[in-house]
Amino acid sequence: MEKSQLRQVIIDQQESFRKVEELVYRDIDLERYLRGNEIVIISGIRRCGKSSLLKLIAGQLEGVKFYVDFDDIRLSDFEVKNFQDLQDLVIEFYREELDKSGTGQVYYFFDEIQNVPLWERWLNNLYKEGKKVFATGSNSQLLSSEISTFLTGRNKVLKLFPFSFRELLRLKGIEITGEKIESGMLTSSRKAEIFSYFLEYFEKGGFPLVLISGDLELSRGYFEDILNKDVLVRYNIKEVRALKDLVLFLLSNVGRAYSYPTLRKITGIKSLSTIKNYLDYFQNVFLLYQLPRFDYSLKKQKVSSSKIYTIDNSFLKTVAFNFSENKGQRLENLVFVELLRREKELYYHSEKKECDFVLREGMRIKEAIQVSVDLNSPETRKREIEGLIEAMTTYKLDSGLILTFEEDDILDAGGKKIILKPVWKWLLE
C-alpha cells in the first residue's frame, strides 16, 4: 500500500476517533486495563461496542492517541512494510505534541487487528519500546493462537459482549442496584418501566446500535457480515450452502442438544470433522456457543450431546426460522449469555430429568438453574421442579433457582429450598 494512500485513510480515521460522542459506560473495571504496560486485547463479536470502548478508554488517558481501524476496506492492501509507515505518521502528525510533553507517550488503538499480517510481532515490538497498546479483534481462535505464541505474559484480554440489561437501562437513563431491588424500594411505576425495557431487551438483544436506533433489522446485516467476512472468507469455506443451512438450523433450535452424528443426518454434511470445524468456526467468531453435558467422567462428557446457544437474542428474531413465539428458548438463551458474561463455567444436567444450567467451581457443582417462561401449567411446573431437584440431589445442593418472567417466591421441596425469581431482577444482581 502506498504511504500517501495510507496517510489519507489515517487522517480520516483520526478525525472520526476524536469526535465527541455520548457513550454508554460499560460495567468493566477499566482501571485494571489502564494500569501497567501490557497490551490490552479486547475480543468480542462484531458490533458489540469494541470501538466505542476504545473511545471510552482514550477519554481517560492523557497523551498522544493514535487510532487505526483495520476493518476499513481502504486498508485491504495493508502490508508488513506499512507498519513503519504508521510509525512515521505518528511522528508527522504529533511531533509538536511529543516535543511539548517531553515524554514521548503514545497510546495506540487498533480496531480488528487480526485483519493484518504479522500483527502480533508488531505489537510485540511496540511493547518492547514501552508503548501502551489497545487492540480489538473479532476472532477468538486467531487472537488466542498469536497471543500464546508471541505475547504470553505481555497482554491482558478483555472479553466484551453486547449490552447487558443493566447497560441497556443505563442507555435509557436508569441507574439501579440489585440492593435497591431486593430491598423492595422500587415504586410500581418504576418496576413497570424496568419490565418494559426488559421486554425490549428480550426481543432485541443487546447490540448497541440496534437499541439506540430501534432498528432490529440491523442485526440481520450483522449476521451476514459475520458469516461472510469472518467465517466464509477467513476459513475459505467451499460448501457455502451446507454451512449456511447448519447455522440457520442451529439458530432455529437454540437450547436443544445435538451430537455431531445427529447434525450430519439433519444437514446432509457427510464428514463429522467438517461439522466439528464449522461449529468451532461459529464459536471462534462469537456467534454460537456449545454447552456440554456435565459428567464427572471427561470421556463421557466429550461424547455427550451439546446444547447450542447464540450470543444475542436479536438473531432469534431476525435470522432464525419460526422463532417469533418460542419464548422459552429465547429466555433460556438470554440467561445463558448472562452466565457467560459473568464468566461462569457452565454445563447442563441430564439424567432421568434435565436441568438447564449447572455451574461448576473447582471440582464441585455449586449452583443449579432452571429457566421457564412461567410455571402455570401443572406439567411445566412438575418438569422444571423435578429436574431442578434431581440436579440438587445429584450435586448435594441445598438450594436451587428457577428463573421465570414474573414469578417471585420461595418453595420448600422436601427440605430443599427452591427460589423462583423474575429474570429481570436476576439480571440486575
From TrEMBL:
Q: Show the Pfam families listed in the entry.
A: AAA_14 (PF13173), DUF4143 (PF13635)
CDD domains recorded for this chain?
ABC_ATPase (cd00267)
Q: Where is the signal peptide?
A: none
Domain called AAA+ ATPase: residue spans? 36-161
Q: Which Gene3D superfamilies match?
A: P-loop containing nucleotide triphosphate hydrolases (3.40.50.300)
Task: Report TM segments.
Answer: none
Q: Which InterPro entries match?
A: AAA+_ATPase (IPR003593), AAA_14 (IPR041682), DUF4143 (IPR025420), P-loop_NTPase (IPR027417)
Q: What is this protein called?
A: AAA+ ATPase domain-containing protein
List the source organism: Methanosarcina barkeri str. Wiesmoor
